[in-house]
Design goal:
The complex is a heterodimer.
Chain A lengths: L1 H38 L1 H10 L5 H24 L3 H24 L18 H31 L1
Chain B lengths: L1 H26 L15 E2 L1 H6 L4 E5 L3 H6 L6 E2 L5 H11 L5 E5 L7 H11 L6 E4 L2 H8 L1
Parallel strand pairs in B: 1-5, 2-3, 2-4, 4-5
The chains are: A mainly alpha, B alpha/beta.
């Protein structure tokens, strides 16, 4: 009985450690993406404008604001402070971005992603989509883990 | 409980991000135009461009079929679809003292901005301007 309990405990620790690595990697990605865009907000404003969804003025405002939001949320994931808020915001941002990207493609717009500034300038659409879906999947997995963890605590 | 915590945390993060965003917007105030994607110094009205007379070289950034239908008299076609093909013809007509006026169909189109940007960056040209209001504005003033 003790052995079984120890094994479960160790497995739980390993899983917890692995999820923490995922937190750090995903948080790091968003901090990197935000930093690239903070360094060139004019280019990011142009990238937002290319989607032809928002007026230019609002696009410029978002170009100054969103990168900082990404960075703070990425930091929240890594430091595990305001974690839930950071995870929710990032999940919502990526979801909106995915919809906008697919909509732009359907409308025949030839756009650069803008998600990693100039680093992603030459990516083709399938590459963009694959990476965004992967990040979105990981964010959902992290969210699900939080929700199921809370349900377990409530049950106990 | 989770929901209220989530909302509170999200609000705090959103508010935190607002501060450096505003500071940066103020710092970059003179480097980006909030009204238009093209800085005011790179825009030109139809009246201004016409006043340049022979010193202006007009560039039509619209698709070929629109150019063929009608265009500013003397304008040269230069669009992104056939950039490599059309650029030599434009460069043959260009000279350093000339002012380049790029237009597309209207205020909302992107093509003139993109072509002007490429002329400045790739062809290293100075004195490249985007026509305010584009072809629609030209027709009105005509």
């Amino acid at each position: 009985m003790n052995d079984t309990s120890n094994i479960k405990h160790q497995t739980s620790n390993i899983l917890h450690f692995l999820w923490r690595i995922v937190d750090v990697i995903v948080g790091g990605i968003f901090i990197y993406a935000g930093t690239i865009k903070v360094l060139d907000p004019v280019q990011f404003a142009n990238d937002i404008d290319n989607y032809k969804i928002l007026p230019w003025t609002i696009g410029v405002g978002l170009a100054f604001y969103l990168p900082w939001l990404e960075m703070f949320c990425g930091l929240a994931l890594i430091l595990r402070r305001l974690y839930l808020g950071g995870l929710s915001i990032l999940t919502a941002l990526v979801a909106v971005f995915l919809v906008a990207t697919i909509a732009a493609k359907v409308r025949g717009l030839d756009i650069t992603c803008g998600c990693f500034g100039h680093a992603s300038q030459n990516w083709n659409f399938p590459t963009h989509l694959a990476l965004d879906l992967a990040i979105f999947g990981v964010l959902l997995a992290l969210s699900f883990r939080v929700v199921s963890g809370n349900r377990l605590q409530d049950a106990v | 409980m989770v929901k209220s915590s989530l909302v509170r945390q999200a609000f705090v993060l959103a508010a935190l991000a607002f501060v450096p965003g505003v500071v940066q917007a103020i710092y970059f105030g003179n480097k980006v135009s909030w009204r238009s994607p093209v800085p005011a110094s790179e825009m030109v009205t139809v009246t201004q461009a016409r006043a340049w007379g022979e010193n202006a070289i007009w560039v039509d950034a619209r698709p070929d079929n629109e150019f063929a239908r009608d265009h500013v008299p003397g304008a040269l076609p230069l669009n992104e679809d056939r950039w490599s093909e059309l650029l030599p013809q434009f460069l043959a007509a260009w000279s350093p003292e000339k002012k380049v006026v790029v237009y597309c169909s209207s205020e909302g189109c992107n093509a003139s901005r993109e072509v002007a940007h490429r002329l400045r960056k790739e062809a290293q040209l100075a004195n490249v301007f985007v026509l305010e209001g584009g072809w629609e504005e030209w027709l009105k003033e005509k």
